[in-house]
Amino acid sequence: MFFASDNWAGASDQVMHALSTHNQGYAPAYGGDDLTQKITKKFSEIFETDCAVWMVATGTGANALSLSTATGPGGAVFCHEDAHIRVDECGAPEFLTSGARMWGLAGRHGKITPDSLRSGLEQIPHGVVHHGMANAVSLSQATEVGTAYSLDEIGALSEIAKSRNLAMHIDGARFANALLALGCSPAEMTWKSGIDMLSFGATKNGALCAEAVLFFNPSYGQDFEYRRKRAGHLFSKMRFAGAQFEGYLKDDHWLKNAAHANAMAERIASGMKDKSSARLAWPTQSNEVFLHMDRAQSDALLAKGAMFHEWPSALLDERDRPQEGESLIRLVCSFRTAQEEVDLFLSHIA
Amino acid sequence: MFFASDNWAGASDQVMHALSTHNQGYAPAYGGDDLTQKITKKFSEIFETDCAVWMVATGTGANALSLSTATGPGGAVFCHEDAHIRVDECGAPEFLTSGARMWGLAGRHGKITPDSLRSGLEQIPHGVVHHGMANAVSLSQATEVGTAYSLDEIGALSEIAKSRNLAMHIDGARFANALLALGCSPAEMTWKSGIDMLSFGATKNGALCAEAVLFFNPSYGQDFEYRRKRAGHLFSKMRFAGAQFEGYLKDDHWLKNAAHANAMAERIASGMKDKSSARLAWPTQSNEVFLHMDRAQSDALLAKGAMFHEWPSALLDERDRPQEGESLIRLVCSFRTAQEEVDLFLSHIA
Amino acid sequence: MFFASDNWAGASDQVMHALSTHNQGYAPAYGGDDLTQKITKKFSEIFETDCAVWMVATGTGANALSLSTATGPGGAVFCHEDAHIRVDECGAPEFLTSGARMWGLAGRHGKITPDSLRSGLEQIPHGVVHHGMANAVSLSQATEVGTAYSLDEIGALSEIAKSRNLAMHIDGARFANALLALGCSPAEMTWKSGIDMLSFGATKNGALCAEAVLFFNPSYGQDFEYRRKRAGHLFSKMRFAGAQFEGYLKDDHWLKNAAHANAMAERIASGMKDKSSARLAWPTQSNEVFLHMDRAQSDALLAKGAMFHEWPSALLDERDRPQEGESLIRLVCSFRTAQEEVDLFLSHIA
Amino acid sequence: MFFASDNWAGASDQVMHALSTHNQGYAPAYGGDDLTQKITKKFSEIFETDCAVWMVATGTGANALSLSTATGPGGAVFCHEDAHIRVDECGAPEFLTSGARMWGLAGRHGKITPDSLRSGLEQIPHGVVHHGMANAVSLSQATEVGTAYSLDEIGALSEIAKSRNLAMHIDGARFANALLALGCSPAEMTWKSGIDMLSFGATKNGALCAEAVLFFNPSYGQDFEYRRKRAGHLFSKMRFAGAQFEGYLKDDHWLKNAAHANAMAERIASGMKDKSSARLAWPTQSNEVFLHMDRAQSDALLAKGAMFHEWPSALLDERDRPQEGESLIRLVCSFRTAQEEVDLFLSHIA
């Protein structure tokens, strides 16, 4: 019953197989290999547009470095108060952008709203040097609490952002899970909705250590190659990053993995319907389930070997917080989650 | 005949095998896994002392982040003029240290000397704010041109450095190759010679993407965990970095790989003895051979399919530069270099 | 009727006189002059303790550079949501600290509370690398909205901060005004209340461009000289910074200036008592008065030549915001404010 | 006999007078005052072109912040080995550019040459990510050793720089002195010779603390206002920076001051002709004289009360270094240097 994190799962067989396949013979280093070109082409097919593709070592690197191409002196990036870039990356975005501010906006269920964005923009009006510059909006898709912005929601935020020339960024650590939740195309969820740049995550969904930054808007990222190297994110044996992506993207492997993870999460969510000691904190839209649960119940589950984390409620809207005596727990499913694990977990809940 | 770079070789079978072995079941993310602890212990055994060990994504990350723990405002790191940190890392050390200067010192055969270090220190005397601070000395071991500092040479530089409280750092992208060249223990080549911190490279010698920073002196690196994360160098599925190191360090695999690479380089060097159209530029001490060669000869070799790079001579001592009509070429051997490749190459040289 | 900002007033005669006095003959540059030493001694007398004193060009420089001595990788500085360092310095603290985060805390009347600080600390628990480090607390004294922390309030916050080894910093752009509001000694308002470092402002209260950073706790600021130079804040003709401080501190000039400014503000506040169209937004404790006022009234005052700014209410506690049809205006008095200006202003209010 | 530095002189009477004149009444803060606009206009007249003008606190700030507008990730700025930005600013350029490298080039008499620039550019070829980017060339005019680039020399360097799209910057701490040495117009010495940006120094030549950055090429510096604020270089009472420049630029005061300083230096240089124990190290072209002198002689001069510094010879071309038993001394004249001082000094030399 491992629901602690999708990072606890290892790599998928298909990704591992691709690693072995591409570990033959010699290949130019630092991205000069054929595979790197091939991956770029593959992404352009998937996203139905030419895009610049840069592989990096981690999701934190992908987020911080992509945002660095959009931020200026005194810059600000609007994001949800509990966004990974704001609270979980040890200041990497601030550091790698040379000081841009991650400007937290409130909103239920992990989503910022047009109102909260407009309110944030009012605090950084154009041309007032003291307040700095508003430069970008970053959306976590799926969000930190397992929900997903709809296409309409993304579009509405993009429209506001564009009115002030802000870049639109997606932190897609769980991009595939959100994509399936929406049932739309990768193009629709990104550039067709006004997204300029994307941190495309593969690690949580089956890779070992493969993340990529995609630029749909050529106004950004012209110097990204230098930014990546300057941060120590250019692998020398780049072929192994390419190999992971080849295995990950081939034959819809990435979508199949995410579909499984989402289905397992849905199975948990559905299984909650008749439970008296636990209830969904908000809708489950990807591979994460959040439950309000009697603390005695959650303690009992841990004692029975279930692995999961309690979720901090300080940044939640008051209406979403657990009640007295309850804990808020997060259950994360992955491509490796077995149906048996889920059913065993459900059987333990009163 | 692939002698372009040891980065062109893939990963060794033993490292690949370790990856598969450790891709079983669930494991805590971000270094909370058992393997990470095990690797630290293994390094302490190899180096015969307790040391702090931090795995990072790249050698550039290892160098820049380790040096960042030793540099202050206006800081300077002394290194050879052609050191990787000064000319080949796109300013990563400057960026990740928030502006420290990589202060190039001259010296034949890729090595700085006590005199050049003393001369550098005179330019940054203690306590003159305009000139900034002298903070560290970084040695490439093996050097960029395939030579290795002797224990006496390291010791002499350390003594000067310590007299000004400078940290001693080794860029060990080819640590194993240098170690075998000296025939000493890892402890002797590092902390017993005054080295405080080490970028321990595994990628060039058989890993996919595994580098580590080791601190022998506990005065440095107390906040390294935060520096690594802040630069986006903390892998989420850290077990795979650990797995690479397990395969790499087990049963002296790393030393065997390096021994083979060094032997192949030595075979090339020996094969040069009777050649009229090429000669060793300087002694071969690791897995790299540098040859002065008639340009017609080097062109012919390329035409026959040999892969190698010409080496820029601008930063060389005048006495080490190629003569008119000659090129200076670098041949790099790796654990994968076949004796047949070497012999074929030699057979093509007049 | 100039109430726009205390920065609109020029310099006081006494400060100007000191400039002329010290513009005689030659003096060593870069702080090697006698005056620099004299100023340090004077500050130590005023604060009744040995302290390190560094003069810098601006208040923003003073804040950002002092905080940089206390922040580590992924660091966070707790401050009020509307603190100058968070919203009015164009990201200088983030930039000059290489990425520390200014972590806004809520609180009425511009003050953070023990509860809000504790709540902030819970979000950055010790030892969780993802969340970074909690490094410092910065208090604006007087606050951005003209109130002043009491000694008890400072002490209570310091106690919480010290329990987590956080540095306590005061942004004292209006230090003198707050000091008089409390009626205590400089020592009591700083190190005796747990303050480690202070941005001591002189510019708003009579100087041309003179700010100083004071370290009461020798654990901080050992490398400040280098930080100041590295940011371009070391004046070459430092004597002129010293001269400003000499004129400013001599014969309690700074306290007299602040006493006048505070008295003028109090005169406005008192004059509001019987007004139907305006009321104090919160108590006036320094040289700033905040009024809720019918918008028609505030428009009329502007039309009559009064100079003042409307204050943004987005960051205010809901209970402190203006009502429908009202504006919230800020009136700032300075050493130059004439009683006639105040009385004329009052006469215009219905 | 004060020849230690032009920074040892105070401010000129005309500048002091302007300060007093503009210390009347209220004026908008942060550059919103009329005087700031007036200064911009005045500079555009002097330089015969529209230019953007930004006043900052120090020359180090001017240099580092202007260069920051031209440098990208992994960027490099070519300058002479002994340039102020490389050796005397405590890493401020590296810090405020977020890590650009100050790339030292050799050259006699403090000047880089077309050959040395071309050689530097070869080390950072276009498009090789490992080596970073070549972004700018910075010339000290006058140089650190008191010489001045001719218009032809500047033009030749600009031509090379432009062929690689590098920005041309002048560190004009002693701009006026060099201008008079060349006898050309400000326009000719800057934008007509390909200069894109200028650190225009006033402090050494009569101001208290007034420096300005001028952009002649509108491709650079669009976000300079934000860079200045982010580094804490925006004075709140900006009128006082403006006042200094008004006094400094009015009625050719700046040129008169420099003419006097240059004349005093020339008087020293001429006075050396028949001296046996001292000789000019190289031609005197501004307000600085460098002498090779018997050490006994220089010791005797110090004993007699002459104030000057010995100049470090480590960075000099071998042909320019003092001989055994000699010291190399620097004598700096300023607008305040009295002819009597000069003559007394000369009378002491054998």
Give a quick rundown of the structure.
4 copies of one chain form a homotetramer. Chain A has 350 residues and is of the alpha/beta class.
| Average pLDDT figure of chain A | 96
Per CATH, the architecture of the largest domain in chain A is 3-Layer(aba) Sandwich
CATH topology of the largest domain in chain A: Aspartate Aminotransferase, domain 2
Oligomer: homotetramer
What's the level 1 CATH class of the largest domain in chain A? Alpha Beta
Strand content of chain A: 15-25%
Q: What does the model show?
A:
The structure is a homotetramer of 350-residue chains. Helix content of chain A is 38%, strand content 17%. In chain A, the strands form 2 sheets. A 7-stranded mixed β-sheet of chain A has the order 1-7-6-5-4-2-3, with helices on both faces. In chain A, strands 8-9-11-10 form a 4-stranded antiparallel β-sheet. The first copy, chain A, is α/β, with parallel strands linked by helices. The first copy, chain A, has 2 domains: 13-251, 3-Layer(aba) Sandwich (Aspartate Aminotransferase, domain 2); 253-347, Aspartate Aminotransferase, domain 1 (Alpha-Beta Complex), CATH 3.90.1150.10. Chain A starts with 12 loop residues before the first helix and ends with a helix. The mean pLDDT of chain A is 96. Chain A has 14 helices and 11 strands. Chains A and B meet through helix 1, helix 3, helix 5, helix 10 and helix 11 of A and helix 1, helix 3, helix 5, helix 10 and helix 11 of B.
How do the helices and strands line up, and which of them pair or pack?
The structure is a homotetramer of 350-residue chains.
Chain A: H1 13-21, H2 34-46, E1 52-56, H3 59-68, E2 75-80, H4 84-87, H5 92-96, E3 101-105, H6 114-123, E4 133-140, H7 151-163, E5 167-172, H8 175-182, H9 186-189, E6 197-201, E7 211-215, H10 224-230, H11 239-249, H12 253-271, E8 278-280, E9 288-294, H13 295-303, E10 309-310, E11 326-332, H14 339-348
Parallel strand pairs in A: 2-3, 2-4, 4-5, 5-6
Antiparallel strand pairs in A: 1-7, 6-7, 8-9, 9-11, 10-11
Helix pairs in contact in A: 1-11, 2-11, 8-12, 12-14
